[in-house]
Amino acid sequence: MLAFKYISFHYIKYFIVILSALVLFLVGFDYMGSADKLDISANLLLIYLVYKTFFAIDMLLPLSLIFAMISTKIFLIRSNALVSFYSLGYSRVDILKPFVVVSTVVIIAFIGVHSISNFARADEMAKNIRKNAQYLSPTRDLFFTYKDKFVYFSKMLPLQESAEDIRVFSFKENSLKEVLIASKARYRDEAWHIDSADIITKPDEINFNSLGIKVNEKNNLEILQDFRPKMLDQVYEGKVNFTIKDAIDAYTLLKAQNINTDIVKSSLYKIFVYPFFVPSMIVIIFFFVPVSVRFLNVSLFSFAAIISSLMIWALLFALIELSSHKTVPSEIGIVAPVFILFLIAFRQWRKYRLAT
């Protein structure tokens, strides 16, 4: 228990320091490169920097956990604390446990933060502030299918949960049957509400005896039940950074309509699977480190461990991007590499556990 508390304290300390340094570097570098484009008010500039900070934390938190483990292990070696713990009867697995437990708890906590915040969309909102001086830019010319209807929004405002210039086309037996035309719609109570709309109805057969096209006005209509504005914006604009709730809702809805769900699955794997490569990397790196500086070139080990971590992190990040754009299946691009790292880490852990 003494070793667990001591190592956890230093691990968390190094993690906070490293994450803060990396985030400040990334946000500062971004600001220097974008300062001439940020001709906005001080309030919006502050919000822009906050969103960039959220994006940096989202991207760099897994890497910071690995770097913190490397730093803590070197600290334990240099201070001879590691040798002391081993001499007191602690095994390698006992020393490893604080790193695995703390990193796993941090990852689970961060996934929980994802479920109650807009971390996933922070970069998108920052770009909108830089480009349009507002959090979310209107989505224009949105055309999509919903159940047996085709829907067109000339402009949708996700933040205001409203849409303008709506057209809803209904088909029957591959023939256009009805067109709904409305100037505005607003999302409330899990549906899109239209105060007033014109309904244009086409007869089944057009001939000299048919009554022709009918135009009726109807009030208080509901369309697109359970299709939230932010989900519409993400799914049909082809964006890939879903919040957990939006991703789950989008997957359920698209699956029910037999529409491709690869992008949504990729987003869910990125949130729930990808971060767990960290405990595996910690286990793999941990067992390559000798117990004393007499058997270790600290500078060389630090360089090799950091470069290896960066390369694996960059590879996983690249595979996530490929999966998000449907270049490779998300199961191969995200799940498989994390699972392979887990198998390697489990083999290492089992080998040294049996040795003790």
Could you please describe the fold and organization of this structure?
It is a multi-pass membrane protein. This is LptF/LptG family permease. Its main location: membrane. Helix content is 58%, strand content 18%. The protein has 356 residues and is of the alpha+beta class. Helix 2 packs antiparallel against helix 5, helix 2 runs parallel beside helix 9 and helix 9 packs parallel to helix 11. The chain is elongated. The two termini are 18 Å apart. 32% of the residues are buried. The model has no long low-confidence stretch (mean pLDDT 81).
Q: What's the layout of helices and strands?
A:
Elements (H helix, E strand, L loop, with lengths): L1 H33 L7 H37 L2 H7 L4 H25 L5 H11 L6 E8 L2 E9 L4 E11 L2 E14 L2 E11 L12 E10 L5 H8 L7 H13 L5 H11 L4 H10 L11 H27 L5 H26 L1
Antiparallel strand pairs: 1-2, 2-3, 3-4, 4-5, 5-6
Helix pairs in contact: 1-2, 1-4, 2-5, 2-9, 2-10, 4-9, 6-7, 7-8, 8-11, 9-11, 10-11
Protein name: LptF/LptG family permease
Keywords: Cell membrane, Membrane, Transmembrane, Transmembrane helix
Membrane topology: Multi-pass membrane protein
